[in-house]
Design brief:
Layout: H1 3-10, H2 18-24, H3 30-42, E1 46-51, E2 57-62, H4 64-67, H5 70-82, H6 84-91
Antiparallel strand pairs: 1-2
């Protein structure tokens, strides 16, 4: 559920720390976001850079492969906007 949201947040190409991603997606549990980030890295859609500092610091960035999914995410966002009223009537502001 959160992978497309993570990719959307990383689309600008600016590396983000895990805490920044968590702040952008407060509805998601931090543990779930960490699992989703790990899977995105394993799939090659996101790159993780670990800096050898104390304390260790890591950043995530979208890869070229991950960028190929952005048109699909954009299409889903557009579809959601076009059909928003249907689902608002059904589900309200949950």
């Amino acid at each position: 559920k959160w992978k497309s949201c993570i990719l959307d947040e990383l689309r600008a190409g600016t590396p983000m720390r895990p805490s920044e991603i968590h702040k952008c997606l407060p509805e998601a549990a931090p543990r779930i976001l960490d699992i989703q980030l790990k899977e995105l890295v394993e799939d090659g859609l996101v790159a993780k850079t670990i800096y050898p500092e104390l304390p260790p610091r890591s950043e995530y960035n979208i890869t070229e492969l991950g960028k190929t999914l952005l048109p699909i995410i954009d299409a889903m966002l557009q579809w959601g906007e076009e059909h928003f009223d249907i689902f608002e009537k059904k589900y309200g502001n949950k």
